[in-house]
Known about the structure:
Elements: E1 17-23, E2 26-32, E3 38-40, E4 46-48, E5 54-56, E6 63-66, E7 70-72, E8 77-78, H1 84-88, E9 95-99, E10 105-106, E11 120-123, E12 126-130, E13 136-138
Parallel strand pairs: 6-9, 7-10, 9-11
Antiparallel strand pairs: 1-2, 2-5, 3-4, 7-8, 11-12, 12-13
Amino acid sequence: MPGEPDLLELLGEPTTWVFPKIEAGQLTLWSVAHQGQLKEGPFGLREPDPAVCARILPAQVDWVLTPGLGFGWDGSRLGRGKGFYDRLIPEIKGVAFGVCFREQIEPTLPRDAWDRPVAELVCEEGWWRCGGADGLTNVPLS
């Protein structure tokens, strides 16, 4: 989406990548090996092509790169209002990372009971674990 970091160049790293696709109002997950398996979807976004990608269950996912309009150092997240990632985060077996630009991070954001926080934040300036006495703990990139 405009205003979000472009992570497509990470494809090709030796791992299994899983991308989201919205189908019938639900977020589904698909294994993607290379950019050729993505096609243009709504709003010009690239999404998995179900003809060549395998469907993945959330419980098979080790971690998720979570988009957002804004994030708090406490892990709070402002999404786009559909709740897709708020429903996904509790279903994965690993960690949810918020991916954003530094100017999208605030001390905290308002949360409702159904909002699920991210555990860590990644932006062009670094990588932080959310929480701690001051709201964050720096985790150095290696």
